[in-house]
Amino acid sequence: MSAFSSEPRITEAVIIASGFSASKLREQGFTELQLKAVGFDAFELRGAGFNAVQLRCAGFTPSELRIGGFSVGECFEAGFSHRRLREAGYSAIDLKELELELPELKACGFRPDDLKPLGYSAAQLKEVGFSADDIKGLYSPGGKYFIMG
Fold first, then answer.
1. In whole angstroms, what is the distance from residue 75 CA to residue 140 CA?
2. Cα angle, residue 80 at apex, residues 76 and 42 outer, rounded to 5°
């Protein structure tokens, strides 16, 4: 009988001190939840072949998945909302990859200076409810060119 049964009785300290990799432990039947419980992070579990859906089910946050190298698309497919992805540190540029339009980006909590790199005009920002004070100083008087600074 293997020391790695479906209900492992090896302590966290023994596993970590023994230098077992997440990949090796996965090969021996450990689940993502068990590996998380003994201290492996999203990066290590991603390297062991677990996907974002599996890690979300194991309790990883979108921020942990982002730090672990998962793309905004992988996290969205795992079921995290646009707003949670923004709160996890994904940028407006990242979320634009999900084909979000300006109103959706604004609803995520992005500010005009976050949206500026996406090329939206001052008029477009005003249309979705940003005030003149919100966008003041971001654009030239014509609203088409960014002020470099």
1. 36
2. 85
Query: Considering the domain boundaries, does residue 27 fall inside one?
Result: yes
Which residues are registered as beta bridge partners of 139?
146
Confidence class for position 2, pLDDT limits 50, 70, 90: very low
pTM of the model: 0.78
Instruction: Count structural domains, the chain.
Output: 1
Query: Whole-angstrom Cα distance, residue 67 to residue 12?
Result: 23
Is residue 94 in some structural domain?
Answer: no
**Is residue 39 included in any domain, yes or no?**
yes
Nearest to 73 by CA among 58, 51, 57: 51
User: What would the two tokens of residue 60 be?
Assistant: 């990883």
pLDDT per position as a tens digit, 83-119:
999 999 999 999 999 999 999 999 999 999 999 999 9
The three-point CA angle 104-86-92 to 5° equals 60
Tell me whether residue 53 is in a domain. yes
Domain residues for the domain of 3 are: 1-64
- State the residue for tokens 């090969």: 27
